[in-house]
Amino acid sequence: MVSVHKYGSVTLLYLPRMKSTFALSALLLFAASVYGADPLTVARLYESQLRIPEGEVVSLAEAMPLEKYGFAPRNGEFSGVRTFLMQVKHIATTNYMTCSSVLGEKPPVDPGKGENGPDSIILKDDAVKFLKDSYTYCHKALGTLTSDNQLDMLPSPFGQGQMARGAIAMVPVWHSFDHYGQMVVYARMSGVVPPASR
Fold first, then answer.
1. CATH code of the domain covering residue 73
2. pTM attached to this predicted model
3. DSSP count for the chain of H helices, then E strands
């Protein structure tokens, strides 16, 4: 529930946390448009959503020590799970697959077995570059989205049926966070505190 408090000529609105976060976001977007910032577009909206997981995933990939890139949990129900390296490559590969679909192109990389990317990428530096490049490619793709084309139906990048272009464009956002959660567990089990938690 919103409560209104007046202090002379100043009126303050108090909102519950979730609503206040939304209200603050809306206020910042409004303020940016009033003070001459570039106007919000459909493309900028999608790209802003991608920047959130991009920052967290890339910083964690950079923070994980080279010697831990082969780590995967073994105790418990972890049989056959991806190593940290494979998590990084899988995110990047899926980014390429989905964003190439948004652009109407073939994926510029070999998706490999299980969407784990090229077998030739085995070193940390190469994996981090592959990941960063995939986000750059996705920003290019999301930069093409408009109110006119975001609802266009396209072949699914996963081979079954069709999806709206905007829905495909959101896959790198939620998919990155899905695997980021797994990577955080791997990092913490390896004694690494994720940069986003420091």
1. 1.20.120.450
2. 0.81
3. 5, 4
Residue count of the chain: 198
Measure the CA angle with vertex 57, ends 40 and 21; round to 5°: 45
- Closest of 136, 142, 130, 139 to residue 61, by C-alpha: 130
Please tell me whether residues 85 and 23 are part of one structural domain.
no
Give the separation between CA 66 and CA 90, rounded to whole angstroms. 17
Tens digits of pLDDT across the chain (198 residues):
444 444 444 444 444 444 444 544 554 455 455 445 678 999 999 999 999 999 999 999 999 999 999 999 998 888 899 999 999 999 999 999 999 999 999 999 999 998 999 999 999 999 999 999 999 999 999 999 999 999 999 999 998 899 999 999 999 999 999 999 999 999 999 999 999 998
- Tell which residue, 121, 146, 149, has the closest CA to residue 134: 121
Count how many domains the chain has. 2
The answer to whether the CB of 95 falls within 8 A of the CB of 135 is yes
Q: Are residues 33 and 92 part of one domain?
A: no
